[in-house]
Amino acid sequence: MATQDLGNRAGNTLSDRMLKVLDGAPALIRRKPRYAITSTIQTGSYTALGLMLGYSIQKHNDLVAMDAELVMLVRSGGNDGVSAENITRLEKAGWRVKEAEELEFENVDTSQIRSHHRHNLNKLHVWSWTEYERIIFLDADTVCKGSLAELWQMPGDFAAAPDVWWDVITDNRFNSGLMVLRPSTEEFHSLVKHVSDPNYHSPNDADQAFLNTYYRFRYFGLPYKYNFNLIMYQFHRYYWDLLWDEAVIVHFTVRKPKPNPREHCHKGCNEWEPMEWYGMMFREMLAFYGWEKEIPLYA
């Protein structure tokens, strides 16, 4: 279950550059930030979304003042893992990259989990990162449009925002696309153990159903603005329009940004306005890093 930190390999994150020797003076001793804002990319096709997430977080948050760093958990093995080239891009975008071994669970056949969720249980690794006091975890298909600072004041050990469905605006279950947690080795081992318990984890379920069962009646509820679910745009439009300005994290659940222009969502498509907003932000990110000729537009 080891996690390998690849963050120093390129030495190209903003914080790394700040630590280079200046005018012959000795290099500063790097102190580990108090907090981490994390995500995970388990299949290489999500790399561009992770780049966009990192850019958007830094656009709206001063990580130095926050005493936080960006940490991306990746899976690089297999035909669909994150390539070395994309790891370098993630580092350029400010992520400290950690590569983790695939978690194994006794009596659990992960091949039964739906293919697009098959590796999601690997996000449990972040509970073992006890070098941080608190962690904000975000799915890679989210975008930040505001400050995350108040989340560090979250009471308790675990917090998340409610899930939303086409027919349910207020679910009593949470969506695991944003979680605030206090790392703990004991909690990490407990989570891994309970995945093997059929009372907590069904054979074809990934992380969200399991975590809802595990933390039932034990989590702190966050407002919608920290996991503003795209499904609201089509099915709960009044609340989407009402809350858009205060939304901090937008979660692209029912439609993912795509690189193929023929799959882009334009006027007449159910989620066209949010997808065009994403495309505008993605163009801004490509221009900022000079990637216009390397990475296609996701929208």
- Unreliable residue stretches: 10-27
CATH class: Alpha Beta
Strand portion, in percent?
15-25%
Amino- and carboxy-terminal Cα gap = 35 Å
Please, how many domains? 1
Gross morphology is globular
What features would you describe in this structure?
GO terms for molecular function: glycosyltransferase activity. With 299 residues, this protein is α/β, with parallel strands linked by helices. It has a single domain (3-19, 29-256), classed as Spore Coat Polysaccharide Biosynthesis Protein SpsA, Chain A. The chain contains nine helices and eleven strands. The protein has helices at 14-18, 47-60, 63-66, 84-92, 185-195, 207-214, 231-235, 237-243, 272-289; strands at 3-5, 35-41, 68-74, 95-100, 134-138, 142-144, 158-162, 174-181, 220-221, 228-229, 249-251. The strands form two sheets. The protein has an eight-stranded mixed beta sheet, sandwiched between helices. Strands 6-11-10 form a three-stranded mixed beta sheet. α2 packs parallel to α4. Mean pLDDT is 89; it is low at 10-27.
Structure, briefly:
This protein is α/β, with parallel strands linked by helices. The chain has nine helices and eleven strands. The strands form two sheets. The protein has an eight-stranded mixed β-sheet, with helices on both faces.
SSE layout and pairing:
Layout: E1 3-5, H1 14-18, E2 35-41, H2 47-60, H3 63-66, E3 68-74, H4 84-92, E4 95-100, E5 134-138, E6 142-144, E7 158-162, E8 174-181, H5 185-195, H6 207-214, E9 220-221, E10 228-229, H7 231-235, H8 237-243, E11 249-251, H9 272-289
Helix pairs in contact: 2-4
